[in-house]
Backbone:
């Protein structure tokens, strides 16, 4: 038996580079928003708030996501008269649900979303479901993010001014979870089921026969056997404001279920103002929403109200970041990037995207280093589990810098 490793010394800061080999380009993506057309007149906007988030994201997937199944995407046609590709078909490769495009971006098994300029979220799908034939953790994480953003928007619809006390991200997440379960129930058979229901509606002249009832029961059992399986953690930050006697002040509602994290950093003083607490069943098994999980948003999710200032940075991170970087390293990395951005350095000209990219690359470098020290390695040692190096995982970084509207 080899001697026990020395205690990890991480009080000093590590120097990060981008020397680690880059993976194929499709595994790395970045941008300012996940909305397809943020300037569209149809794009929702929480315009009653005097504050907004200047956003950016950078993501890395350890492997390509399993393709979404029908009916969420269309399979290529087998007809010689149809095009060989569905790339340019309106409902081709882009996923749809309930007749609408699925919002957000898939990153391996993770999903990220930037909805308007007030709501950012990261959901971490549990990759072990890829071993199941009907396992689609990436679809679970993406749909919950999609519906969560829609439910948050409903809180603002038709209202000029929304009181902070009227916002309830946990209830929004619960509703999103319920909607996700409904659309994934029997998901692999839904086109056929819809056709069967259409045929049944043609004749409503009399009661159903015993044979029909038996067939319906068989269909239900078959539907249960074709549910789409998966689980995901969930985390988000919703920017709003608190009314005061002088002027409104910005507030973040940080909501988490599982081990993704929300951080608020003040770059001017290089300090962490807030960090969410991770939720676990046991080591490496976080609380999660989905198939066979006892966890629910109303029962387990937590929302913290965090008072912030203009220019504070709000981060929502998957465990691909926090398993590889300690919190003080994240803070130092973000503060240094913001300083370069504010100084107008050429490498930081894309602002929040640069901040997100720099943090993603730092986490990726440790994740791909088999000899690096990491928080995951330290936690594993505490549990009596042998582990070395970083933890290769999907890395999702979404940031928002609090700004005041002119």
Residues:
């Amino acid at each position: 038996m080899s001697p026990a490793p020395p205690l990890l010394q991480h009080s000093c800061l590590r120097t990060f580079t981008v020397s680690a080999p880059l993976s194929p380009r499709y595994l790395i993506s970045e941008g300012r928003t996940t909305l397809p057309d943020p300037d569209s007149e149809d794009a929702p906007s929480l315009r009653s708030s005097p504050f907004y988030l200047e956003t950016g994201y950078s993501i890395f997937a350890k492997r390509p996501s399993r393709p979404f199944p029908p009916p969420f995407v269309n399979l290529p046609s087998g007809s010689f008269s149809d095009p060989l590709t569905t790339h340019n078909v309106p409902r081709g490769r882009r996923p749809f649900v309930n007749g609408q495009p699925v919002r957000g971006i898939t990153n391996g098994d993770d999903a990220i979303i930037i909805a308007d300029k007030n709501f950012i979220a990261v959901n971490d799908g549990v990759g072990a479901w890829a071993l199941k034939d009907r396992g689609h953790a990436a679809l679970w994480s993406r749909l919950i993010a999609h519906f969560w953003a829609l439910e948050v928007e409903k809180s603002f619809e038709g209202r000029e001014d929304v009181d902070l006390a009227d916002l309830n991200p946990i209830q929004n997440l619960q509703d999103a979870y319920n909607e996700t379960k409904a659309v994934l129930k029997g998901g692999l058979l839904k086109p056929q089921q819809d056709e069967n229901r259409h045929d049944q509606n043609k004749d409503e002249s009399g009661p159903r026969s015993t044979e029909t009832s038996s067939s319906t029961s068989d269909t239900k059992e078959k539907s249960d056997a074709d549910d789409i399986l998966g689980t995901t953690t969930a985390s988000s930050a919703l920017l709003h404001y608190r009314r005061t006697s002088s002027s409104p002040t910005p507030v973040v509602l940080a909501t988490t279920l599982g081990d993704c994290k929300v951080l608020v950093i003040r770059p001017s003083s290089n300090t962490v103002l807030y960090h969410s607490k991770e939720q676990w069943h046991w080591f490496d098994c976080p609380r999660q929403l989905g198939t066979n999980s006892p966890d629910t948003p109303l029962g387990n999710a937590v929302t913290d109200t965090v008072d912030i200032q203009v220019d504070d940075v709000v981060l929502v991170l998957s465990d691909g970041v926090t398993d590889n970087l300690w919190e003080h390293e994240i803070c130092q990395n973000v503060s240094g990037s913001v300083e370069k951005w504010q100084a107008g350095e050429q490498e930081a000209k894309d602002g929040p995207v640069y901040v997100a990219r720099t943090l993603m690359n730092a986490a990726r470098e440790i994740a791909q280093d088999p000899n690096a020290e990491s928080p995951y390695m330290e936690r594993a040692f505490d549990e009596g589990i042998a582990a070395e190096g970083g933890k290769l995982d999907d890395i999702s970084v979404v940031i928002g810098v609090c700004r005041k509207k002119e």
